[in-house]
Structure formats: C-alpha cells, structure tokens
Predict the 3D structure of the following.
Amino acid sequence: MGAAPASRDVTSYGMGLAAPLALFFLLFFVAPLLQLLWLSLHNDTAGLHWGLGQYLHFLTDPFSLGVLGSTLLLGAEVTAVCLVLGFPIAWLYQRVGPKLQTIIIMVVLLPLLTSVVVRTFAWIVILGRQGIINATLQSLGIIDTPLKLLYTQFGVVIALAQVQMPLMTLPLITVLGRIDPNLDDASCSLGAGSWRTFFRIVLPLSLPGVIAGCTLTYAAAITAFITQSLVGGGQMLFMPMYLYQQASTLQNWPFAAAISIIFLLAVLAVVSVFTTLGRLSRGYGGA
Amino acid sequence: MADAPSGRSLVVDAVTHRYPSGALAVENINLDIKGGEIIALLGPSGCGKTTLLRIIAGFIAQTQGRIIIGDDIVDALPPNKRAVGIVFQNYALFPHLSISENVAYGLAARGIDRATRQHEAQRLLELVQLPSMAERLPRQLSGGQQQRVALARALAIKPSILLLDEPFAALDKNLRLDMQIEVKRLQRVSGITTLIVTHDQEEALSMADRVAVLSHGKLEQFGTPSDVYDRPQTLFVNTFVGSTNRMPGIVVSADRTAAKVRLDAGAEIIARPAAGALAEGGRVTVCIRPEHLQFVGDETGFAGVVGMSLPLGATVVHEVTTADGSGVKVSQARIGETRALENGAAVRLAPLAPSLANAFPATL
C-alpha cells in the first residue's frame, strides 16, 4: 500500500462505474422507500392528515407487537437450527476427499436450485396429517393419532431451516477453509482434546463466517413470505403476512407502511448487532 | 508422565506406512535415537520424511512397526497424549491468541492454573529472547520472532521429543543461520531429543548429531554428518548430500577395501567400494566431489579440456570436459593467487586420495 502521492493509483477506478446501479437503486429502492415513509406518517387511509398515529397504534397494540415478537423469535430459532445443523456439514466438508466435497456442495446447493414454492409444498407433503412422517410413525405403531406438525411453529422452523440452510453453510465452508489445518494439529500436539480445540481454536476463528451466515439466514427467515404462510397456515401470523393483509385485504396503506418501517428498523437493529459482533471478531482475521 | 520428560530416547522400529491407495510412504524405517540427540531427517520432497514425522507425532497411524519413546510404546496414544512438541513449517501460531496465550496454550490444556501458566509463558519467552512481546498478536511479529514463539510454545509442555518440520525454510538466509544457532542453543540447554525434518543438506549437516537420509520412503543411511558426507553408503546419498561428479567405469580388480576402476574418461584410478564388494568386470559409477579432484602435472589421472571457470569467492570452480564427452566440476581453494586457466586449456585430473573416490555398482 502507500502509493506515491504524485502518481495516480492505477487500482482506483472512477465512481462513475457505480452510477447505473446507483440510479437504479435511487429509482426503484430509495424512492419507494421514501414514499413508504411518507405514507406511514399519515393518520388516515386517504393520506390527508399528518401524524404518528399508525406507529402509536402498532406500538400500543398487543396483537401487533405479538406478531413482531413471534417473527423475530422465528428468525432466531431458524438461525439457531441452521447454525447447529450447518456447522458440522461445513466442518465435514473441509475434512473429506474431493469426491465427497462435490457431493456435499451439491446437497447444500440443491435447495437453491429448486423454487421456494416447490420446496415448501414438499414440506407440506412431509408434515401433513396424512404426510410422510405421520404415515410412517402410524404404520410403525408408534403413534395412534397423527401428530400436528403442519401449521405449527415447529413446522415453520424446520421448513425455513431447510430452505435457508445454504445461506448458513456456504459462509461457514468458506471461513473454515481459510483456517490453517496445522492449527488443529498444533492444538492437538500441545495436549488439547477435540472439544478444547473446537472451542478455543476452530470456533473463534470461524466467527466471521458464523456471523455472516447468521445475518443472512436471519434476514431471509423473517422475510420468507411464502414458506411462512404456506407451512404456517392461517393460525400462524408473521410480519410479512400481516403486512400483506393490511395492504391488500384491508387497504390500510398507511398502517401497512408503518408496519414495514417498524419491521425494517427491527431487522436493521438485529443485523447491526450481528455486524457489531462481526467487527469485534475481525481481530481474529488473517488466519 | 515420567519425572524427567526431557531427553528421552526414541526408537522407530521397522515402521512401514502405506497410503490407502496402497502406495508405500515409508518402508521399514529403523532409527535408534539416544536421549538428547539432534537428528536430521534429510531427503528430497516426497521422500517420506514428513510422513515419518507425523507418524512419530501420532497424526498418522503407521501400517506396521512401532514407535517407542523412552520405555513406552506409544502407538496406541493419540497425539495429545504423546507429549511430543512440534514446530510447524508455517509455525501454526494461533492467530487470535496473544503470544503469551499461544505459549501457555498447552499448559492450559493440562489444567495448570492461570498464574503458573503466565509465569511459565514469561519464562519461556525470556528463554527465546522475546520477553516484551507477550501481549502482541502473532501477525505483529516477524517470521523469525514467530518461529521463536512456536519453539517456546512447543517447549512449554516439556515434551519428551521435539519435532521440527522444515523449521527454517520460510526464513531468509541470514535469519536462518541465527535461528539454527538459536535452536541448537535451546536444544543444548533443555537436552530435549530433537528431530529436524529438512530438505536442506547444509542445515542437516550443521545442526544434527546424526543424519538420516531418506529417499523414496527408504532409509538410505543413518550416520554422523561426516559419515554421510565422507563415507556415503549409497549412490543416492553421495549425490544428494553435497555435490559430486559421477564418472562411469569398469572394475578392473577389486577387494573389500579398494577397487581399481578404468574410467570411461580414460585412466585407471583406485576407488573405495562404498556399498560393499564389487564384481570384477562390472560397471560402476565413481563419485568424486569437485573439491576432491586436483589438477596434476604428470601423466596420472585423466585428461580433459577446461570449459569455464567460475570464481565463487573462497573457491574457483572449473568445468572440465573429459575424453568421453562428459563434464566434471573441479573446485579449487583460492590460496594466494590462483592460476587462471584458459578456456580450452588441456589439463589432467586425479582424485586427491583413493578414499575420496567412491565406487557404486552402476544402476541400469
């Protein structure tokens, strides 16, 4: 680094290259967002009276707060499941031969190659009253009456975890691949067992990937409209569906806009917690 | 652990290792290493020396044979129970832990309390002359400093054996010499039986009490540096350790201690049968080191024509083409004003002494 001030740094490019994308974002992202904000600051559906009524309504309504809370909790549960199931896969990936690596990466990527709708319907088939799980358990005589799996929090978490798994596994595979395998051997030769090596060496060094994976999984899980609605059904209400109902069915656009803004801020808060953790763990980088 | 973990003997007993593919990594290696010795495992890359090191450390379970440390057969022990310290080629310091935490890591794994750990880490950092670096992170240190930390970390667990895997390969030349001296000093102080894996023959010869030369998974020779250099037992050792001229010829007559060989380059010379008795009339390869050839004024020796002369400082190397068209190198010490040899000058060459020409049966 440290280029001579007199000569132009050949690796710096004009910001002009980013202009098309910036314009696109300005037109189709920033502008609608501002419009949303403007809309949310009106007390009536016609948009004539300014005020914070919609926000007050949301923040004093136990039902709305409940939906927000259960959505954020859902995200946390899905993220936890993805982390616990995804870490071993990523770890395994770095320790098997190239053939098995190809198979693992295929299995990890496969969910991305099929439509979310198809994947979600598959889960309905699996979890339903006459679904694969219930049919199997009943034919084995383990249960008499079908378990209620579909339209439960459990069902939504499992389906979302499967759908979002690549978002956790891929960053973990990347970060684990950057850890020098000699560190494992070094730790072992110094007398540490596998668990100490994992908690003192592997886990701290993979934190950047863990945080990236958690951020992606979390953001994707709480906004997954299709999976949430289809697997959750009518009884489970999460923010995206709540928003959709207010806007589409009830035509209450200002309230829907306020929900959007609150949801956005809530997600940003959680993500910024993750990124702060990420920055703190950056000290571990450069393995 | 034993009371005196340092300076324990190490026996590699008929160790053979096959890769899952069936290929031999090392074959029937026998090494009997006394407590406190420095041993170099020397060989080109792919000769199996790193595999052998990993077998001793316990990272690889050998197919056959035993590893005995002190009086214990350690084959059933995992690496974390063997008390073998390792310094890796890239040092493998834990990048997220401070220098002092790195050094104390093995002590923490042994359940030693924090105060003792810190005290011990500081003592070791003083031993490797880095007492003020305790709170830094590994990446803030230079290569040589990182290596000292890696040494301190390995020594902290009071290992019975210290293994060094190409420890100096990543250092530049001047630093390498400093660190070689440093390692030898630390080894003398601690008395730990030490095994250095290296492909650098100078490193092996200068640091080790005894050198084990490996090639293609087999032990070619295990002896003192002067044995290996002056009395090589195989053609491979002769050519791999130091430089040598290989001159083909036919055995005229031979007994156990001397063979008369007619070189293809002309002239008959007396050579040492390095690998046992030679058959009369058999083809041999005679190895003579460049510094063991001299220009002679009389009719003894073989004729050649000087091609190029390279003044290398303390020595001058001449390239001489012999009668059979092959080239030999002659290294002359630069004593006073060395006579400059003209390009194309006709000369005669002979070995300094019969014991300095080693004859090996020619391989086809």
Remarks:
- Chain B has two domains: 10-235, 243-361.
- Residues 98 and 135 of chain B are 5 Å apart (CA to CA).
- The interface with chain A takes residues 57-59, 78-86, 88, 90, 92-96, 105-106, 109-110, 137, 139, 153-154, 156-157 of chain B (CB under 8 Å).
